[in-house]
Amino acid sequence: MQTPHLPTLRMYPDHLTQLKHKAQAMPRQQNHASELHLTFPGTAIAVRKALADTLAALRFLDLSPEEAGTVELVLAEVMNNIVEHAFADNPDGMIELGITPMPNGLSCRLCDDGLPMPDGMVPLGGNPSLDCAVGDLPEGGFGWFLIRDLAHDLEYTRSSGKNRLTFRISVGHAHFEA
């Protein structure tokens, strides 16, 4: 069975408001694999739309609900970190997402032109302590712990003013090859 070609989606901010987006899908031919490409504004609203578009485009993979949830969680954590931290001082930043289905899972690539990661590396993402009263539980701090736990082959580079994060998410039979 031949893998269907994934669309290239580009979402650009509407000139009337940052909250409206247009999506234009174009088929993309590749020699070895199909790749999903999305380019979208670095805003919380655009991240939500990109997540929905990504999951819809990956439907042909017949991911289990657990696998789809893992893909959504990892991508949401990474993209929301970009919005919150890399674009803290740049509301006009753009995020590029590429996903390529591979025999060992989904190969993911995110690029942005925001601020670099602290110390030029991916945060360690320790597991926050939950040994406290409910009212004292941390509000955040789980993101990089979850990303590191659910993604494989995590690599970060910064070159020519761009951040590039790559990783693999095991899906299907790839769970046993991780």
The CATH topology: Heat Shock Protein 90
The Rg value, from CA coordinates, equals 17 Å
Q: Rough shape?
A: globular
Main sheet summary: 7 strands, mixed
Task: Catalogue the unreliable spans.
Answer: 1-32, 174-178
Strand content: 25-35%
Q: Give the terminus-to-terminus CA distance.
A: 25 Å
**From the helix content, strand content and strand pairing, which structural class follows?**
alpha+beta
Share of helix among residues? 10-25%
Number of H- or I-type helical stretches: 3
Order of helices and strands: EEEHHEEHEE
How many individual β-strands?
7
Supply the CATH architecture. Answer: 2-Layer Sandwich
CATH class: Alpha Beta
Q: Give me the side-by-side strand order of the main sheet.
A: 2-1-3-4-5-7-6
In the CATH hierarchy, what is the superfamily?
A: Histidine kinase-like ATPase, C-terminal domain
Indicate how many domains the architecture comprises.
Answer: 1
Give the averaged pLDDT, no decimals: 78
What does this protein structure show overall?
The chain is of the alpha+beta class and 178 residues long. The chain has one domain: Histidine kinase-like ATPase, C-terminal domain (Heat Shock Protein 90, 2-Layer Sandwich). It has a seven-stranded mixed sheet with strand order 2-1-3-4-5-7-6, covered by helices on one side. The chain is globular.
